[in-house]
Amino acid sequence: MRGEFLHNKVIIAALILALSLLGYQVLVEHPVRAGQRPPCVDAFVIVRDKRIVLEAECSSARIGNDLAKARVLGADLLLIIVPHARMRARVHAALNLLAARGGQASPLVQVLTLGAALRWVADNCPPVAARPAAGAIET
Amino acid sequence: MNAERYDKFFERWDWARAHGAANDRLGQRLQRGLAVMPQDSLLRQLADSRIRYLEQQSKAGRLPPFVQAMMLDGDLVLGQDVHGTPIRVMLDWLCSGLLTIASSGSGKSNLLYWLASQLAWLAPSVFLFEPYKLQSRLLLPIYRSAGKPLVILPWQQWRWNLLQCHGGDPRQHAATAVDLLVRVLDLPGRAAAILRQGIYFLYTKFGLWEGQTKHFPTLFHLYEWVRAQQQLNAASRDAILDRLGAFLLSLTPNCGAWIRCWSPTELSRFSVVFEMRGASESVRNLLPQSLLFNIFNARIAQGLVNSRLELLLIFEDAQRIFSDRVTSNGEVTPLDEATGIVRGAGLGIWPIAQTTVGFSRRTRPNMAMRIFGRMGCNEDYVTLGADCGLNSEQLDFVRHHLLPGTFVGQVGLGKHTLPFLFRVPLARLPAALTDAEVLESQSPLRELPTEFADEFAKWSPQLVAEFAPPVKKTAPALDEGDLRLIRAVVAKPGQSVSYYCRQTRLSGKRLAEIRKRLVAFNFIREHAVALRTRGRTAIVLEPLAAAEQAVRDNPETKS
């Protein structure tokens, strides 16, 4: 998986574990289009027929890319998970700047710290019934 | 009445003889006849016709008011007097110094060529320093036909090292070198102390104090030493680095980075034309002066004996080396001192300059022989006229009647010390030399032992930024608490500190100390992550390669 220790082993791993325990099939490093070396999102999951893209970010530099990828995938929700509250403020500022510049319609975006993201998963992702425990699938 | 006429006649005849009336055979016979028969009317009539002719010439202003120089013995022919009689000087008189002053176009180079070409057939070697021209190299065919080697040495091909002692006392040599550097590069006074310190250090490093005489430090070594000393006085250090750096840049390593260069003793076996054309001002000053000092010191150390002329040093455009810049303050430079005492050491000095303005006032009195031609300013005529003892009539004559190639000479040695007029024959210069001939003339020097400092082959004074990796701290020995934490982090990375507290059973304070130390020595890395919806961010630990290695090196022993 791309990314450093914090990105892969702490943030994404915690979310994948949480969603997997609830029975969801999480697609890790899911490509947004066909072809050689396509851009990928960190994780993709379908919850209650809603397409949710999960992106972990340790800086606000690639927020525009994340939005574009989510748009291509036709995501209903883009969850951007950041390590701490200071980074969340920076990501919000980046999103406001992008919104001010205008452009295409973007999906719903939520910026959460890891703890808040885990709480969101617990609140919004009901356990999937009668389904064998599925691990994360890496594409 | 006859006695009165007798006295006046012979007075007039003596004056006429002084102007060459008795130079030819008839005149000599007349002189002998009058000596035997002073009253003979025929002899007197013949003599009187000559006297009247000369008196008419004198009244018309065509007769130079100079006594004929009866200098008929000597190895060197200066030229011809107005009557065509050669004027000769003894070769050893050149040990007392010969000064030539004449303005541009008056025939100085012709005089130089005339005398230097005679030296090809005589014993002494010649060192000729040419700051601008490439004319003296045309002496090569003459020296070749005389069977004497003449080396044409452009300054770029000179193998030079100011700090080489050449067999002398290193301490004295260091003092001379520092003095030269400070004067030529115009360094501040404090710089001299720094340079002395540097040279002392380098001499110690090269073992010179213990008697090592094969290898010597160069000015490039000195520059690098100064550059490395950050703690020196900043202003002096910068002055040295700027000026010495600029000097070394113009000198080039090819000329100055020789840990063993040609010694003056070895060079003085040959006649050499040192061509300084294209050199910077500092190079043009320092290289010849350093050679001079080395030669002087070597000769003086041999003891002052009235030896014959062995080496004649000729300087064109001599005012840059024998400069008045220092002596105008009343100081005596080491060069002026040396020119005053090398007479007995077999060295002759012949400075050639265009004017006395700017020429060292301390050196001029040490030149026993003086030659001057057409000059450009009144100060020169007055100065040299006084030095040579010209009367007002003679001075007036030289102001208006000196032609190119005609000079006034005065020799303070020998029997004839009055000023005299002479003409130098026009020298016919051979065709220009090829580069191959110039290179071939240097072959005797290439056989001399030298050694180049390869480390300075591509030297540059520009400072470069050196990016050195940070100093690696040596990891301390890991104690039990450190190992416990490392093992816990490696076993389950990415957990919070409170988790590791529980796992390792270490207190929070102790774990914080251990954690800080391990982070400092790159065993683990910390990340701040908000693991909860509220509250402070947690510290999550990441194991690094050193931690994994430490776990492998310290396997847990289960009791």
Rounded Rg of chain A: 14 Å
Termini separation of chain B (Å)?
A: 151 Å
As an assembly, this protein is heterodimer
Q: Spell out the helices and strands of chain A N to C.
A: HEEEHEHEHE
In terms of structural class, how would the helical and strand content of chain A be classed? alpha/beta
Overall 3D shape of chain B: rod-shaped
Gross morphology of chain A is globular
Tally of strands of chain B: 15
Largest sheet of chain B: 9 strands, mixed
Tally of DSSP helical segments of chain A: 4
Rg of chain B, please?
A: 39 Å
Helix content of chain B: 40-55%
Helix content of chain A: 40-55%
What does this structure look like?
The complex is a heterodimer of chains A (139) and B (559). By secondary structure, chain A is α/β, with parallel strands linked by helices. In chain A, 40% of the residues lie in helices and 24% in strands. Chain A is built from four helices and six strands, in the order H-E-E-E-H-E-H-E-H-E. The longest helix of chain A is centred in the first third of the chain and has 17 residues, at 5-21. Chain B is rod-shaped. The chains are: A alpha/beta (139), B alpha/beta (559). Chain A binds chain B through residues 5-6, 9-11, 13, 83-85, 113-116, 119, and chain B through 493-494, 525, 527-534, 537, 540, 542.
Could you give a short description of this structure?
The complex is a heterodimer of chains A (139) and B (559). With 139 residues, chain A is an alpha/beta fold. Chain A has 4 helices and 6 strands, in the order H-E-E-E-H-E-H-E-H-E.
Strand-helix topology:
The complex is a heterodimer of chains A (139) and B (559).
Chain A: H1 5-21, E1 27-31, E2 40-47, E3 50-56, H2 63-73, E4 77-82, H3 85-101, E5 108-113, H4 114-124, E6 137-138
Parallel strand pairs in A: 1-6, 3-4, 4-5
Antiparallel strand pairs in A: 1-2, 2-3
Helix pairs in contact in A: 1-4
Chain B: H1 2-18, H2 25-36, H3 41-59, E1 76-80, E2 86-89, E3 98-101, H4 108-119, E4 125-130, H5 140-145, E5 150-154, H6 170-185, H7 189-205, H8 219-228, H9 234-251, H10 253-256, E6 258-260, H11 264-267, E7 271-275, H12 281-301, E8 311-316, H13 324-327, H14 334-341, E9 347-353, E10 369-372, H15 378-388, H16 392-401, E11 406-411, E12 420-423, H17 435-441, H18 443-446, E13 451-452, H19 480-491, H20 497-504, H21 508-520, E14 524-529, E15 538-543, H22 545-553
Parallel strand pairs in B: 3-9, 3-10, 4-7, 4-8, 5-7, 8-9
Antiparallel strand pairs in B: 1-2, 6-13, 10-11, 11-12, 14-15
Helix pairs in contact in B: 1-3, 2-3, 6-7, 6-12, 7-8, 7-9, 8-9, 12-14, 19-20, 19-22
